[in-house]
Amino acid sequence: MAPIGKIYSYPNNPRVYKALIAAKYNGLEIAEAKDFQTGVTNTTPAFLEKFPLGKVPAFEGADGFTLYESNAIAYYVASYKKDTKLLGKDKHEGAKIQQYVFFADNEISPAAATWTFPILGWIPFNKANQAKAVEDVKHVLSVLDKILLRRTFLVGETVTLADIIVFTALLNLYKLVLEPEVRKPYVNVNRWFLTLAHQPEFIAVVGEVKLCEKAAEPKKPEEKAKEEKKPKEEKKPKEEKKPKEEKPKKEEKPKPEADDDDEDEKPAEKKAPNALDLLPPSKFNLENWKRFYSNNDTRPTAINYFWDNFDKEGFSIWKADYKYNDELTLVFMSSNLVGGFFQRLEAARKYAFGTLLVLGENNNSAISGYFVFRGQEVPPMVIDAPDYESYDFKKVDSDDAAVRKDFEDFLAWDVPIGGKKVADGKTFK
Ligand SMILES: N[C@@H](CCC(=O)N[C@@H](CS)C(=O)NCC(=O)O)C(=O)O
Questions:
Q1: Of 46, 102, 279, 312, which residue is 20 to 30 A from 247 by alpha carbon distance?
Q2: What is the position in ligand 1's atom list of the atom closest to the CA of 70?
Q3: CATH code for 91-206?
Q4: Where is the composition biased (Basic and acidic residues) (predicted)?
């Protein structure tokens, strides 16, 4: 039969599986949108006209009907067949199915993402968030385990959209982190999950599901490294507390290590002048540069401005290269990594400018760029960012002609760099 429509997405997106499995149960065909390129196709005006969020999956029916949000697409496909069993037999079952759709999105997916995305290299690892996510997942599994004690499927006596959607929400957990010891207590969930995984309609879409044997590790345990190396006095200032007796004077110099074992007694560290603010004044004004760069053509105007005003005594230029390029996948995910890094550099905004580019293409890319820092060292607020450990920072010689040319290319984004085209980029300013 002719496909009822096509879905735009990158390959193997579990959100797409929901509609594809539903289609198998209903005997329907859905095509894959040909030549879809993440970060390219979904940013074109034609795509955004139909799917304004620019996100995938996105569905376009053979009749011109358009739809985004994977649960809505799965629902549409499930409802496409009149006598489908996927939506329950009455309004109670229908409502229960909705309950599980929201349950999957609100109770499972956020925790599953926090646990598995750092493993997939999509977001940076954060120890505290991960610990919380593990607990949340275990809680959800124990809830499901009770529900499934006397049930083969979540709603009614046959597979419904509830099973399909909860299954896909759990899929990466079962594949990546729920190693035997961890999943052992949830016998009923395991049985239910494997029952679904062995249904021909699931196999046709998901393939053979290999359950996790040993939990995959997050790729970059930056947080741990950061905690180990962070010197005591660099601890983030606690919420400002009024000292019990006398307020310290504004100008008072910070005491080096005194009173260390009673932090509550410390005058607020926030008052300490930042070492970077005590550097001799510089003729190069970073704020002016950022504004000039934003408002003028990069070549030659902004670049000439930079070299005319740059002060190598008061500032330094650093090359930054991502350490784990071989683990990068889709360009938009790499851009998200850079965006996240920049967000966590907020405290350094006054002292830093940066340009980081994603070079190459999907599944063959590198993140690289330059920073301009106040002073001759990497500012402590940059070192404090969890992502700092994921980059090699090397100070460069701003008088070297080759360095200057490379730096200019990273400012301009208009020529391939190291043989790789500029796929995307972000500026920290
Ligand atoms: N709630 C949406 C989430 C869609 C979503 O976040 N899609 C991601 C990929 S899985 C995306 O297209 N991101 C591209 C972007 O944010 O630009 C759904 O279930 O369809």
A1: 279
A2: 20
A3: 1.20.1050.10
A4: 216-257
